[in-house]
Fold each of these.
Amino acid sequence: MLNFELYNPTNLIFGKDQIQKLSKLVPKDAKILLAYGGGSIFQNGIYNQVKAALRDFEIVEFGGIEPNPHFETLMKAVDVIKEQKIDFILAVGGGSVIDGVKFISAAVHFDGNPMEMLQKRLSITDLSRVIPFGTVLTLPATGSEMNSGAVVTIEATQEKLAFGGPALFPKFSICDPTVIASLPKRQLQNGVVDAYTHVMEQYLTYPHEGYLQDRIAESILQTLIEIGPKVADNPTDYALASNFMWCCTMALNGLIQKGVPTDWATHMIGHELTALYGIDHARTLAIIGPNLYHVMFETKKAKLAQYGSRIFNLTGSEDEIATEAIKKTVAFFHTMGMDTKLSDYTNDFKQTADFIVDRFDKRGWKGLGERQNITLEKVKSIVEMSY
């Protein structure tokens, strides 16, 4: 097992009727920026619950944070915080709102152009230089409620870039599974596939001695396969909703990646498809992931075979199990309502591979994946296979 450090200070409050605890979780006398997205919290009653719980606090609202939050929008929130002398942020939304708040938190006191945090993938480490924040999760998917990473889109350059650091963990996150009852089926499907691929990025590498990490990862995958189609059809079932929400958090709260190699190339390529074509994040993962497994088959074959035998109970030779495991993964994505080819989303894809390779080359991203052996040539093959 590889050496590792595990640090996660987020206080996770999970279950029904937990929003009422906000008044005890937010620092006393804090002036709060209430940040949210497109307004669904007004329709599902969460806004009223939050406002009632914080009735004794001074609140400034900032709405309109986009799915795949835009740098340009977030900088407007930074201006509000400076003007209003805000000292605490509450993110009420899904992963995009929470990611956006992480950026806002770090940008307020950043020396220089905050865009550099994204372009240079800076690690934010100084707690004295960020605005503390908490979250009320409304859409399970990204695990952002219990990690310190974020992804932000620079609209001007059509780039979707990641950053983070140990200073960007939420102080607390309220996770009430009943909030998913009002979500559209497409968003629930996206959440399942997003969480599934998060696990695969940390699991589907090569055999190692992280036996427990593998078993925890496999249990999350098996649970998502079991409940994914059901929760998309029956989001009011609390047993399904609670297991779904906890799977999404566990998939990316840092636990299963400790002591083991990780990949993340599927995400890095998928982010480009979202930035270029506006395709839902989870759906880009369903497009790229299986094709990456095909292109990198020889170096991932042993782990693919383990995955196939343990998750899908496949038998046969290593090559046979590994090949069938990819097919089973695609079949699961289809069950979750995913299209798995780029041509299902756009007709304007002929030069996509060349564009992405050129962009990665300019960023200095020469080798991706757990072995840094996903070269730019392989990136091109993966994207072209995804057409």
Amino acid sequence: MPATVVVGTQWGDEGKGKLTDLLAADMDVVVRYQGGHNAGHRIVVGGEAFALQLVPSGVLYPGVTPVIGNGVVVDPAVLLAELDALSAKGVDVSRLLVSGNAHLIMPYHQELDRLNERFLGKNALGTTKRGIGPAYGDKAWRVGLRVQDLLDPKIFRAKLDVALAEKNQLLARVYNRLPLSADQLAATYLDDYAPRLAPMIGDSVGFLHEALARGERLLLEGAQATFLDLDHGTYPFVTSSNPVAGGACTGSGLGPRDLTAIVGIAKAYVTRVGAGPFPTELDGDLADTLVARGHEFGTNTGRRRRVGWFDAVLARQARRLNSLTEIALTKLDVLDAFDEIKVCVAYEAGGQRYDYPPYHQSVLHEVTPIYETLPGWHQDLTGLTDAADLPVAARDYIDFLAAAIGVPISVVGVGPGRDQFVRPS
């Protein structure tokens, strides 16, 4: 399998980091292909937790080369702090390759992100205010600064001056903020960040194709998930890039025929952070129980996640959008305490049944879930290592989801640790 893609099938936080870490054991290269530090992975190895934001999960394996692809937006301060934290825990980060074509997040991106959310008021999108959207906006406007610009001070300063001429007017005239200093920004990025990052910057596209030519195995991981995709998600409550499997090609420089397996990650229930439609959302005691048992708080932001029952309507759409070859189901153990578990198998709106999400957002906001109810199992799954030991009700739940989605479930997570998973037969 030359290249495998790992993609979230819900609204993120499905446990992509753990699965990527699991698959990375058999890989030579792990590539992050889009997003920024607005999404985090939490991986537990030997009882020690590693919170990753920009660095690909494969960094925890000595034989893996981690690559930050061209589709990522990079905040150098965050990246360097993350590398320092990993180094302090004994992780070798010297193998990291950062694409010269990746775009830089600048302080004015973060400032504009914060101000815009405040300006929107009750219509705020719920962004993490990390500058991701404005950085991608500048990329589309063709006024962004790229990682490779750190290697050419003259080019960096010229591009910075062009960007600040517009950004400072916006900050001053619209938001009544003081202008940013080009001299201070250039000093920080060129004198502080560039010397440390320079050894890591290179031609990621060439490196990946040469790795394929050598017969090496590649794993591509995205941030966020299918329904936060800029084109296919619940717009406008989405991210500013394409987490779907197609984005793995544009964000890495690989071609579609290089992808041979696409693994969708699905939590055994559903969570969402921020605003936007959520047909199966729960509240009250059920929601509190799911949040508490699943530790459903953002890795980066600490925000409480919204929670709901598994939504097979979304999962079927994710199967279509990503050409999924299999599903990895995570956090099944969180459901251990429930007497019964519901699965949304379809929506109803205006007397019409929907087996896939309605294309029009006004309809999606009004749908009523159609549920099937399955029995719970009231057994602690966290110590299991063999799928044969799963209680019958848990196996029935897995089989039900696989049939409802139309894709086999190949891995089931039964705890947060690296080794806490089983493989259904």
